[in-house]
């Protein structure tokens, strides 16, 4: 059963990002984010929640689902945290070019993983 | 917030700390074809739902007047994940095949390993558009026919291939999206296909 995500009032999204609309495109849906520091008092609550979530590697799309915020908004927030040195990002190897295939060695590893499920 | 009990019971299992490579596979199909069912059958987490906002021009949150602009629409999608090993994690996205979704393809799904087109033989027309768009984006894909219990027409795979005008080189298989083994087989068929393509490409000087 599909349950629409409640993102609340559009104005809230605008507030969360401080009115910014340009996302950091470096963050892929499956970029894994890791916190490099604890949340601190007075920090924007969304930033604090991301730091809390990312004690273990967490994909951008999972952060978006947990925070119930659109991907673009999460990318903006992650850009902030990265600029502050509070997170590190592990980017996917395979996401660089549109039409090129990943190498066969990587695919072989994927196959192996799937067969062992 | 700030309570001593920070681990909520509903909290999903975190990834291994060594996880470093995220991968994507997209499952495309019309409404009710079983995308979420397929994701659920193979995912290690309960499927989650998220969304992306776009303007009519497809350039993200509205440029000048904030997200309250009338042109803003949202595209929602489900996803699940499979930890392949300590380092690699595969994310499966169940994506709606409707037109507005394809505006977001590049922004969300560039770098996708490949796609599965999930077909319901009772609504085969829904699959045409998805196949056309994937070819346009040059995303390799396989087609899986989700056999519903009341699929009494019982078209053979050959008939379905013909109806979809699907070239021989594109793998076409039956599946039951509710079954974990069947879902696994669909993914393995796709990655096998990708592997063959990659090998062929690597052999070409």
Automatic annotation (TrEMBL), chain A:
InterPro entries: DUF742
Lineage: superkingdom: Bacteria
Protein name: DUF742 domain-containing protein
TrEMBL record, chain B:
SUPFAM superfamilies hit by this protein: P-loop containing nucleoside triphosphate hydrolases
PANTHER family, per database record: ATP/GTP-BINDING PROTEIN-RELATED, GLIDING MOTILITY PROTEIN MGLA
GO function term, MF aspect, one: GTP binding
Gene3D superfamilies on file: P-loop containing nucleotide triphosphate hydrolases (3.40.50.300)
InterPro entries tied to this protein: Gliding_Motility_GTPase, Gpn, P-loop_NTPase
Protein name: ATP-binding protein
Organism of origin: Streptomyces fumanus
Similarity remark: Belongs to the GPN-loop GTPase family.
Top-level taxon of origin: Bacteria
Record key words, sorted: ATP-binding, GTP-binding, Hydrolase, Nucleotide-binding
């Amino acid at each position: 059963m599909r349950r629409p995500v409640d993102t609340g009032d559009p104005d809230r999204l605008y507030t969360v990002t401080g009115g910014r609309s340009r996302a950091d495109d470096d963050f892929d849906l499956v970029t894994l984010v890791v916190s490099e520091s604890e949340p601190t008092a007075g920090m924007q609550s969304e930033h604090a929640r991301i730091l809390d979530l990312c004690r273990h590697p967490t994909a951008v799309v999972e952060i978006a689902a947990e925070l119930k915020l659109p991907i673009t908004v999460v990318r903006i927030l992650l850009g902030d945290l990265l600029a502050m040195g509070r997170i590190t990002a592990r980017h996917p190897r395979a996401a660089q070019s549109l039409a090129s295939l990943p190498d066969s060695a990587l695919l072989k590893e994927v196959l192996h993983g799937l067969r062992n499920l | 917030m700030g309570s001593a009990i920070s681990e909520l019971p509903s909290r999903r299992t975190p990834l291994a700390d060594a996880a470093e490579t995220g991968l994507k596979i997209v499952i495309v199909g019309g409404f009710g074809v079983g995308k979420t069912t397929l994701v659920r059958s193979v995912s290690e987490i309960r499927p989650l739902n998220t969304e992306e906002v776009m303007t009519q021009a497809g350039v993200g949150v509205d440029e000048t007047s904030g997200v309250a602009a009338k042109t803003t629409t949202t595209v929602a999608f489900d996803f699940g994940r499979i930890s392949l090993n300590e380092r690699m994690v595969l994310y499966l996205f169940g994506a709606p095949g409707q037109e507005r979704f394809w505006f977001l393809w590049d922004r969300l799904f560039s770098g996708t390993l490949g796609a599965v087109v999930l077909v319901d033989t009772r609504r085969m027309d829904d699959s045409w558009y998805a196949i056309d768009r994937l070819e346009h984006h040059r995303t390799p894909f396989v087609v899986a026919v989700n056999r519903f219990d009341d699929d009494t027409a019982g078209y053979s795979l050959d008939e379905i291939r013909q109806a979809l005008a699907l070239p021989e080189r594109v793998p076409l298989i039956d599946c039951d999206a509710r079954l974990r083994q069947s879902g696994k087989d669909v993914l393995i068929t796709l990655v096998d296909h990708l592997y063959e393509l990659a090998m062929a490409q690597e052999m070409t000087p």
